[in-house]
């Protein structure tokens, strides 16, 4: 490998790993926001179906309305001017918000002010992290443009540049691995089995061994692929229906394991993705 290319891999790995960390920070901060929100409005999560982290919802709470103000606010004002006409279904969401606010308990004024401060701080952090995420993704795309092998993975429907970058950054030169099983093992992509005689436990879990960054990008890529490639969707659904517990997570990990075979073939053979033809074609 040339020095220039090695530098590209290292830089790409640093950027994709930084993005991985920010994704986790963003998720944790959103969880904290929900905790504060549930204290301010204890029925909000159950009543409102729209994403609480959408721009309109964020602005709605960052303006620090009291429960009573939200409950009494005219519907057209709440859904229109205050929502900046960005709700997917303004009337439905606005009614849900008002219902949630009316059925929530009222906080002491001092406590409510503190919760408003926490909500505002959390919103600021979320927006800052989202901005950093966009900047990192721009940098990732710039580096990725200089790597020819990126085209092979990115040709797979639903993958996109970010997941392509994360996979390539962690795998590096495909020749490092003897075959696809070695890649899967390196990523720690397998679902542990608890077996005793003829009994096989349903309540098992994902292995936490291996490269967490590669595992993350493969699993996230698989989650996208199942929405674009029927073969992977069918495989996911088959695995989903095999067990009564951890259905989605297990099915996704096993689909990611199947996806590793495709990644290996594309990189090793320097080829673009080609969909399988159906029997009737």
From TrEMBL:
Pfam families named in the record: Transposase_20
Domain Transposase IS116/IS110/IS902 C-terminal: 151-237
GO molecular function, one term: DNA binding
GO biological process, one term: DNA transposition
InterPro entries, A to Z: Transpos_IS110, Transposase_20
Domain of life: Bacteria
Protein name per its UniProtKB record: Transposase IS116/IS110/IS902 C-terminal domain-containing protein
Organism field: Weizmannia acidilactici
Origin organism lineage: Bacteria, Bacillati, Bacillota, Bacilli, Bacillales
């Amino acid at each position: 490998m040339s020095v220039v290319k090695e530098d590209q891999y290292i830089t790409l790995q640093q950027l994709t790993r930084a993005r991985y960390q920010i994704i986790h920070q963003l998720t944790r901060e959103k969880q904290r926001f929900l905790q504060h929100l549930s204290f301010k409005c204890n029925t909000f999560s159950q009543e409102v179906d729209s994403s609480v982290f959408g721009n309109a919802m964020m602005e709605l709470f960052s303006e620090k309305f009291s429960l009573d103000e939200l409950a009494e606010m005219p519907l057209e004002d709440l859904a229109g001017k205050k929502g900046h006409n960005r709700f997917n279904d303004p009337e439905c969401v606005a009614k849900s918000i008002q219902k949630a606010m009316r059925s929530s308990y009222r906080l002491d004024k001092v406590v409510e002010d503190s919760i408003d401060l926490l909500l505002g701080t959390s919103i600021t952090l979320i927006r800052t992290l989202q901005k950093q995420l966009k900047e990192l993704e721009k940098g990732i795309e710039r580096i990725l443009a200089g790597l020819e092998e990126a085209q092979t993975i990115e040709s797979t429907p639903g993958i996109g540049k970010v997941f392509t970058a994360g996979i390539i950054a962690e795998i590096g030169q495909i020749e490092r691995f003897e075959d696809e099983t070695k890649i899967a093992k390196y990523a720690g992509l397998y679902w542990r089995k608890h077996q005793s005689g003829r009994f096989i436990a349903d309540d098992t879990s994902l292995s936490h061994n291996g490269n967490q960054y590669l595992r993350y990008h493969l699993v996230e890529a698989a989650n996208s692929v199942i929405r674009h490639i029927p073969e992977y969707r069918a495989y996911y659904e088959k695995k989903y229906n095999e067990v009564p517990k951890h259905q989605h997570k297990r099915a996704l990990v096993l689909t990611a394991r199947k996806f590793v075979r495709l990644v290996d073939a594309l990189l090793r053979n320097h080829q673009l993705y080609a969909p399988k033809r159906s029997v009737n074609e």
